[in-house]
Design brief:
The protein is of the alpha+beta class. The protein has eight helices and 33 strands. The strands form nine sheets. Strands 1, 2, 3, 5, 7 and 8 form a six-stranded mixed β-sheet that branches. β25 and β26 form a beta hairpin. α5 packs across α7. The protein is elongated.
């Protein structure tokens, strides 16, 4: 039931079809096309052509124009896929027999799976270049007339072009058409050209995937079908080969021999990994749970994909990982962060404990001028952003994948002019938005959660607030609300705000020096409920300090994040709608 991808063979076929001179007899090319997939798959590495073709002219041309070997890196001249994937529910119609098609319920399951899977697929693929992938939420019905119970690739591409042209007429500029095919259904025709799944592009430029399905009553987890070789196990029946072809399609949509086959090194196509498929498992929130070589390797997963090889890993001439000892590290790893995502981490308060990130905002968060968290006067936790027009936007985070709400514009303009902007709570327990204007005054606003509602400011600090390197709000270990600042001497100061004009207290010096050396500095609460001050040092480590509220008291740091915390555009702490404590970040 496990099948190999035919895409490498398709690439080799396409190369010959595109570049072979017209002087070579068509009959010789047709004979070459009929070679088995396993033979065509390795044509780029064939040492002799005598067993491939008897045509002397064709052999001479192939020797002089070798088929390109698989690449280990993507070429900038060949962009990745940026478009929408459509699933065709093909009803095969033959004279004298009932039509054959995958059920609507199974088609919808396949689409639900793909809607989940394309998220990590795109994250992994982003190592090779910019990409985005959407999945159309419903299947596209298509009636395909077949004769004699068979069809060929030319027939398939005719159907693909018809579907692609229809989607373009609906305003979809770059469709990818996926045709799932269950060959075991009653009256299902056989594909006489290709027995394996593959992705390709028609002569009219429509990208498509031919994907096989081996059972009915599908599930998104694809783990409900008994393995005929092991009564105590289950077997995947559609998700492996679909994710394999989608992953390779996203990285190499034009099939032009420039970009690599990114799933082959982690699949049965390559014997360097033991000739087995490697799976990457995810929960409902696309949070990476781990990887393995069978679908029982990780408990409680929601879906899996065929693993995608890490960019930069050396590949051999066959497009496989050169060193078999590197296969697991090259294939089984968490998706890399993508520029512009809003991700959320959890800190449980112990060394090196910070969780894997959950993607709560899918893209374009890098375009904000300022990003911070706070709470409106109705005690609703919010994420605030200032856009390029200077408006103050307010979002909510429900704590699930890509869930961040549509924004409310709570401030209509001018918010980009502030030097510092952050959320906090004054000593009276009122939730505020703090800002420092061009005069160095510290202003305090209230947000009642409705459009354009932000109150007139209270000037709680009369001057000098623009001289600080860092300025942010938090709470000390005693639960006192504070405004923290780092002065020119690198001292960490702590102020209290009782909510009245010019009231801000004299500072307490809670940290005696060196605080200006950090790259990020902000306050938050860990998952154990401890109020902390977070900092990122020059090594990229995320440190966590406690402040008990007395001079020079700040504790020794706990290193809660090992490295790479310098790779963010924004980094701040906050709470989602359910009150869970998070550290939010936007990767550069």
């Amino acid at each position: 039931m496990k099948v190999q991808s035919a895409t490498r063979a398709m690439k080799n076929r396409k190369y010959i079809r595109r570049f072979a001179p017209q002087s070579i007899p068509r009959a010789s090319l047709d004979a070459l096309e009929k070679l088995p997939t396993r033979v065509f798959d390795g044509l780029h590495a064939t040492p002799t052509w005598d067993k491939v073709t008897d045509d002397a002219q064709l052999k001479a041309w192939l020797v002089a124009n070798p088929i390109p070997a698989p690449r280990a890196v993507a070429a900038l001249s060949s962009p990745l896929f940026n478009g929408t994937v459509f699933f065709a529910q093909v009803s095969f119609v033959s004279a004298g027999v009932a039509p054959s098609s995958i059920s609507l319920a199974d088609m919808q399951t396949i689409i639900s799976y793909a809607s989940n899977a394309v998220l990590p697929i795109a994250w992994y693929a982003s190592q090779y270049g910019p990409c985005w992938v959407a999945v159309w939420p419903t299947p596209i019905p298509y009636i395909a007339h077949v004769n004699g119970g068979t069809f060929a690739r030319s027939d398939l591409e005719t159907w693909v072009d018809a579907i692609g042209q229809f989607m373009r007429s609906q305003g979809i500029s770059n469709p990818c058409v996926v045709i799932p095919h269950n060959r075991d259904l009653p009256n299902s025709p056989q594909n006489t050209t290709d027995k394996d799944p593959y992705h390709f592009v028609t002569d009219n430029g429509t990208v498509y995937v031919y994907s096989l399905v081996f059972a009915e009553n599908l599930t998104v987890a694809d783990n409900n079908t008994p393995d005929p070789n092991d009564p105590n196990s289950t077997i995947d029946v559609y998700a492996l080969n679909l994710s394999h072809e989608l992953g390779e399609m996203v990285v190499d949509p034009t099939i032009d021999n420039d970009n690599p086959e990114v799933c082959d090194p982690c699949a049965t196509n390559c014997t360097s990994g033991g000739g087995v498929n490697r799976y990457s498992f995810f929960d409902d929130n696309a949070l990476y749970l781990g990887g393995g070589v069978n679908i029982r390797a990780v408990a409680g997963y929601s879906f899996f994909i065929n693993s995608i090889v890490r960019a930069g890993v050396p590949l051999d001439s066959g497009g496989c990982i050169g060193n078999a000892n590197d296969v697991n590290s090259a294939c089984l790893y968490a998706p890399p962060l993508v520029t512009g995502q809003l991700v959320a981490y959890v800190d449980d308060g112990t060394v090196f404990n910070v969780s894997a990130p959950m993607v709560v905002g899918l893209d374009e968060w890098q375009y904000f001028e300022v990003l911070f968290s706070g709470t409106d006067i109705n005690a609703v936790n919010r994420i605030y952003a200032v856009d390029i027009s200077g408006e103050l936007l307010s979002y909510s985070d429900s704590g699930t994948l890509g869930n961040v709400s549509a924004p409310i514009t709570v401030g209509f303009g001018g918010w980009q002019d502030f030097q510092f902007l952050f959320g906090g709570t004054d000593a009276a327990g009122d939730n505020r938005i703090y800002a420092v204007n061009a005069n160095g005054e510290l202003l305090s606003y209230g947000d009642d959660g409705t459009p354009g509602n932000v109150s007139a400011p209270i000037t709680v600090g009369f001057g000098g607030w623009h001289d600080f390197k860092f300025l942010f709000a938090g709470m000390n270990a005693a639960g006192d609300t504070r405004i923290y600042a780092v002065n020119a001497n690198g001292e960490l100061l702590s102020y209290g705000d009782d909510g009245t004009p010019g009231n801000v207290s004299a500072p307490v010096t809670v940290g005696f020096g060196g605080w200006h050396d950090f790259q990020f500095l902000f306050a938050g609460t860990n998952d154990a409920g401890d109020n902390r001050i977070y900092a990122v040092n020059s090594n990229g480590e995320l440190l966590s300090y406690g402040d008990d509220g007395t001079p020079g008291n700040v504790s020794a740091p706990v290193i809660v994040g090992r490295s790479d915390w310098l790779e963010f555009q924004f980094l701040f702490a906050g709470k989602n709608l359910s009150g869970a404590n998070n550290i939010y970040a936007v990767p550069t």
